[in-house]
Amino acid sequence: MSPVVIALIAVVVFLTTQVGPAIYPERIAKRITIVLGGAALFVSTADVPVSPAAYADFWPAFAAAFLVFAIAPPLLGLVESRRRPDGEAVFSTGRVAGTTNRLPGHLIGNLLGALIATGFLVAAASMPGVHDFIEDYRDSVALNIALPVAGFVVYLFVRAQQTDACPDIDERVKNDDAWQRGIVGFSLSHWHQVANVVHLIVCTFAVSTTVLYLFAFTIQRSGAGTPLGLSWQLATAMVAVLLFVLWCGVPVQGPDRAVYFTFLTGTPAVLVAILVWFAMLEDGVKRDTTAFAILGSGYAAYCVLAVLGERRRGNFQWHYFTGLVLAFLLAVLLTLSYRDA
Q1: How far apart are alpha carbons 75 and 71 in whole angstroms?
Q2: Cα separations (Å) of 287 from 120, 137, 210?
Q3: Rg (CA), the chain
Q4: Could you say which of 89, 263, 280, 320 is the most buried, measured as most Cβ atoms within 10 Å of its Cβ?
Q5: Do residues 74 and 93 touch, judged by C-beta distance below 8 A?
Q6: Which residue, 284, 116, 288, 133, is CA-closest to 214?
Q7: 104 — alpha (psi -120 to 50), left (phi > 0) or beta?
Q8: How far apart are CA 55 and CA 102, in angstroms?
């Protein structure tokens, strides 16, 4: 294993446990981080890539595992809501007047994440040339660094949830023995929250490493002068990721600001990545038409969902749609000029 990989894994573990923002209870968060870092170091030392994409032919088994990881958190939350004295605060099911039922949005979002992770593995398994590329890819073990990185990314998300629920949580931990009341529902002391962290880490790791493989394969073919043609696998992978970040912005998700800001910041990043990906594919009418369809509909959906989010907060203004109108007019003009060329 490259010393660089060892150093990077150590840096990520150090940042997560010592420098990064605290996730509460810290003892649980640090244990998960140490397990992730230790596992990444062990398999990297053994020169074994652990990305599911490296074993994409076994995607049905991974799909079953993803499904279990996806269903477990909302089911555990439902159990906690029924069994604990403060169950509705831990995991709201809407039984208390004025509260939101977290179960549907949580379950659908997790299932969508599992579906996306599975979709990417199917793409990697079915695209001609990808299997051989992954087997011969000399830097496969280096992608193990994505395991602790996925943990760090998920921790930042959990941190956002906790500080949204209790902005002064750090001060409370220092001065108030009952500090966990401030983050009830989002504490790692809850079963459903720990299970959800595991689910998010698994899906983030699986998707991110598979995307890296597919992206690297696309770059290699483009650099060799034999660019890939647009395939249903690539188109499906692009749409799946776009749907996931858009789902984070739908009203059924409720008032969770961490989820909503994942939509706000993640959607533009995904749209740009898809644009770059399309640019490296073989030129042709099919590629250009599909790019217009995916990027155009994705941007339109982003605008609409963002406006709906503002309406829920009472800040809606019609000028928010001006960017969408201009984009639509430009798309029409480009389409007409392309047809007449």
Answers
A1: 6
A2: 19, 27, 22
A3: 22
A4: 263
A5: no
A6: 133
A7: alpha
A8: 34
CA 252 – CA 102 distance, rounded (Å): 9
Which amino acid, residue 55? Y
Name the token pair of 329: 């007019």
Residues 6+ apart with CB under 8 A from 248: 109, 259, 260, 262, 263, 266
- Looking up tokens 């640090």 gives 30
Report CA 298 to chain centroid distance, whole Å.
Answer: 17
What is the C-alpha separation between 58 and 43, in angstroms, rounded?
19
Q: Which residues pair with 93 in a beta bridge?
A: 101
What is this structure's pTM?
Answer: 0.81
- Cα–Cα dist 107/70, whole Å: 7
36-84 pLDDT, tens digit per residue, is 888 888 888 888 899 999 999 999 999 999 999 999 999 999 999 999 9
